[in-house]
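Saturday, quiet lab. Running sequence design on the structure tokens for the scaffold JK sent over.
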């Protein structure tokens, strides 16, 4: 089963005979590891990482000058309005917008 949010994953593993859950998990979205992974392990449910390269943000090809198309979610969803608030893109935004971003390799 593929889900968007941790709450959905927790609900999904209540289904009998569920074998695996696909959930967004990458360096910017760590909430599944904090909340869901332990429960999935306890129930012996497999986990598939969805969007492991954060929609291309972890490929090394995106920098401060990168411009996304107006309809690209990385443009209009920059602050994570469309995501579970515990796992939006602000982690990237802070690094791209701050003067300390030179410490973070993109």
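Result came back. Writing it out in full:
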């Amino acid at each position: 089963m593929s889900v968007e949010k941790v709450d959905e994953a927790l609900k999904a593993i209540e289904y009998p005979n569920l074998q695996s859950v696909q959930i967004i998990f990458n360096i910017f979205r760590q909430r599944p590891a904090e909340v869901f992974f332990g429960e999935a392990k306890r129930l012996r449910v497999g986990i598939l990482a969805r969007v492991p390269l954060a929609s291309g943000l972890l490929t090394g090809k995106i920098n401060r000058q990168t411009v996304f198309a107006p309809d690209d979610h990385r443009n209009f969803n920059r602050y994570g309005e469309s995501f579970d608030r515990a796992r939006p893109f602000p982690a990237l935004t802070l690094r791209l917008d701050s003067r300390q971003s030179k410490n973070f390799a993109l």
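Notes for JK: Residues 85-106 have pLDDT under 50 and may be disordered. The chain is about 30% helix and 10% strand. Ask whether to fix the surface positions before the next round.
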